[in-house]
Fold Pleiotropic drug resistance protein 1-like.
Amino acid sequence: YNGHGLNEFVPQRTAAYISQHDVHIGEMTVRETLAFSARCQGVGSRYDMLSELSRREKAANIKPDPDVDVYMKAISTEGQEYSISTDYVLKILGLDICADTMVGDEMLRGISGGQRKRVTTGEMLVGPANALFMDEISTGLDSSTTFQIVSSLRQYVHIMNGTAVISLLQPAPETYDLFDDIILISDGQVVYHGPREYVLDFFESMGFKCPERKGVADFLQEV
């Protein structure tokens, strides 16, 4: 796995599963929800780690790098309701405009369905996971909202050098074009796994040509 053995890291801490169902506490704001999720995933323990690191540096008479020291303290401050990392996820998912709005539920008016789906994704992004496995996140959303969410995820994984595996049913052409690689599965078997740009050439070499004026995603599902 990127040159590392499975015994060199903890897979459960490296990967996260994001369900198609949005389960939240309606009375909490978006910011509180992400901060709570971060602490539940162990991110809050950074303060204790930083304290121990500072103690050892003083004992060994080591002077820390000033830039790194400022960043570590910024993301690890004890008692804060939010941190730089939480604010960063809010910004990149477009949730900063509703950060202090209650999530809401059937009885309490809150954020929109698209924003709620982004909160579900954000709950995992604030954790330590670098690999995200997302199950039909477009359920109940229109194509425009799905495009915005996938676009936000694309931006995030490119900036953070992460990985997102997203299963979608009948994605719109503009959403399909956001992906770097395509995995096509039929009856539990992988039919194609590779760059999006080469998928049509692959199937054409197998005798399947995409008709004109037909979306590539629709063609692949029909194949």
The two ends are 31 Å apart (CA to CA). The CA atoms of residues 173 and 214 lie 10 Å apart. The first strand starts at residue 15 and ends at 18.
